[in-house]
């Protein structure tokens, strides 16, 4: 989640953001809590980290096509290791 997505999630009245300034439907400035926005972004940072390290799904499909259970099991284990490394926040 990027900063703009976090602002929109926390402040549904925000319609646009220009140069780090948020505006409502009447083009009035909406003051937002920068720390709250950072906390919201951090809640979803694990997703980007996981995506960057997950193994290529083609390895899994290749294992299925070849009937190679060891390859399938390795893919699953590698995915579980990434999940353990970057756990979903409580």
Give structural notes.
The protein is mainly α and 90 residues long. The protein folds into two domains: 1-43, no CATH class; 46-90. 60% of the residues lie in helices and 9% in strands. It is built from five helices and three strands. The protein has helices at 3-10, 34-43, 45-53, 57-66, 69-85, and strands spanning 16-18, 21-23, 29-30. Strands 1-2-3 form a three-stranded antiparallel beta sheet, with no helix packed on it. A hairpin with a 2-residue loop joins strand 1 (16-18) and strand 2. Helix 1 (3-10) packs across helix 2 (34-43) and helix 4 (57-66) packs antiparallel against helix 5 (69-85). The radius of gyration is 20 Å and the shape is elongated. The two termini are 17 Å apart. The mean pLDDT is 95.
What are its keywords?
90 residues; mainly alpha; 2 domains; three-stranded antiparallel β-sheet; 5 helices; elongated
Q: Topology, pairings included?
A:
Layout: H1 3-10, E1 16-18, E2 21-23, E3 29-30, H2 34-43, H3 45-53, H4 57-66, H5 69-85
Antiparallel strand pairs: 1-2, 2-3
Helix pairs in contact: 1-2, 4-5
Order of helices and strands: HEEEHHHH
Structural class: mainly alpha
Into which percentage range does the β-strand content fall?
5-15%
Major beta sheet, specifics? 3 strands, antiparallel
Task: Summarize model confidence as the mean pLDDT.
Answer: 95
Note the gap between the termini. Answer: 17 Å
Major beta sheet, strand line-up:
1-2-3
What radius of gyration results from the CA coordinates?
20 Å
Helical content (DSSP H or I, runs of 4+): 55-70%
Uncertain regions: pLDDT < 50 for 5+ in a row?
none
How would you sum up the global shape? elongated
Number of DSSP helical runs: 5
Number of domains: 2
Number of strands: 3
């Amino acid at each position: 989640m990027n900063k703009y997505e976090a602002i929109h999630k926390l402040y549904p009245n925000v319609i646009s953001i220009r140069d780090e300034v948020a505006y409502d439907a009447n083009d009035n400035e909406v003051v937002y809590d920068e720390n709250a926005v950072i906390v919201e972004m951090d809640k979803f940072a694990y997703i980007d980290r996981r995506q960057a390290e997950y193994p290529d799904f083609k390895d899994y499909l290749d294992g299925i096509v070849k009937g190679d259970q060891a390859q399938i099991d390795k893919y699953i284990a590698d995915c579980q290791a990434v999940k353990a490394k970057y756990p979903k926040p409580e």
